Amino acid sequence: MNTRRDDRRKVGIEKQIDENLKRVYEQDANQKIPDKFLELLDKLREQE
């Protein structure tokens, strides 16, 4: 009966979830790498 409306609603909810997840991951990806990790990477490169 209202299957089309339910399907559109479900698609809309899934789209919102996808957009929110992308925002969260983009924020994490754009964060600065802590100095401790950079120092560790430098030490590892020196060992090579």
Automatic annotation (TrEMBL):
Domain (Anti-sigma factor NepR) ranges: 15-48
InterPro entries according to UniProt: NepR
Family matches, as Pfam families: NepR (PF18557)
Name of the protein described by the UniProt record: NepR family anti-sigma factor
Organism: Paracoccus aurantius
